[in-house]
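Why does residue order matter? Because the sequence determines the fold. Keep that principle in mind as you read this record.
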Amino acid sequence: MNISGLNAEKTALIRTGYIPLKNKIRIFRISIFLLLLAWCTGFSLLPISPNNEAVLVFQPALKKIYSSFCHQDQEKTIHLGEYFLVCARCSGIYFGAALTALISIFIFLNKEIHLNVRTGIILTLPMLCDVVLFNIGIYSYSITAAFTTGIIFGSAAIIFILSLIENNFFYNSPGLI
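Structure:
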């Protein structure tokens, strides 16, 4: 088959609405990243633009929305002039998931993502230990530790979620090993 024949095949596939698997996965990952970016922007809007009147108008509604997902205890919340609408741990989880989703757009496009269950558990342990050690009184709360363990957990969680969705809907194979 000559070059013009290949181009004709590609043109025919494009006209029928065919989207190559790699492009479908990239579109899916970009969509997930944009959703996570919007979510992170929502809870960090007030510290980012504290004098914006539109932000001040929507802030009570956003606070109510995020209260469904986080306790919002100000002693456990990142403060950058104004408080985030979620605690440091939740901020870490969401930022970690968003960062990992962004990175996943550019890597692993030619392979299925598999999260080894053992690796997933290991990545969950730092946050679990932080919560348990604080709650039994071994040490006092640390915003830095909560944020850092949240990032680790958020990264593992989004890999797990991407693995399940992509491997079941795009590759038709189980996403766990």
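Residues 68 and 86 are 10 Å apart (CA to CA).
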